[in-house]
Amino acid sequence: MRNKTIFICDDDRGITEMLEIVFQLSSMDVVVENNSVLAYEAIAQIKPDVLIVDLWMPVISGDLLIKKMKGNVNLKEIFVICMSASRNGEKIAIEAGADLFIAKPFDLDDILLAVDGALSAT
């Protein structure tokens, strides 16, 4: 049985490095992409179990990435957790097709619980 794969896309390297360490400790395969322009092709190739994506990133925002994924029959089943410090971030994320929204700054336990829940649902 293969390990579950978590794909993290955030332009903040501090966040991606911290999450990568935490999920690797949980015996999950972790893929990190800090450049949102490269994320879609990587997601399409890897087909992770869960995508954790920041809403506000340069060039391609998280909501555009989510919409593009959800429009692809091969990717639309991927569980998407969207994060943002924006006040109206939750509305934008859910309208784009995110399965769950987590406000920044986030509690690490909230992210772990969200991923565990997503993985048990897949």
UniProtKB/TrEMBL annotation:
<dbReference type="InterPro" id="IPR050595">
    <property type="entry name" value="Bact_response_regulator"/>
</dbReference>
<dbReference type="InterPro" id="IPR001789">
    <property type="entry name" value="Sig_transdc_resp-reg_receiver"/>
</dbReference>
<feature type="modified residue" description="4-aspartylphosphate">
    <location>
        <position position="54"/>
    </location>
</feature>
<keyword id="KW-0597">Phosphoprotein</keyword>
<dbReference type="Pfam" id="PF00072">
    <property type="entry name" value="Response_reg"/>
</dbReference>
<protein>
    <submittedName>
        <fullName>Response regulator</fullName>
    </submittedName>
</protein>
<dbReference type="InterPro" id="IPR011006">
    <property type="entry name" value="CheY-like_superfamily"/>
</dbReference>
<feature type="domain" description="Response regulatory">
    <location>
        <begin position="5"/>
        <end position="119"/>
    </location>
</feature>
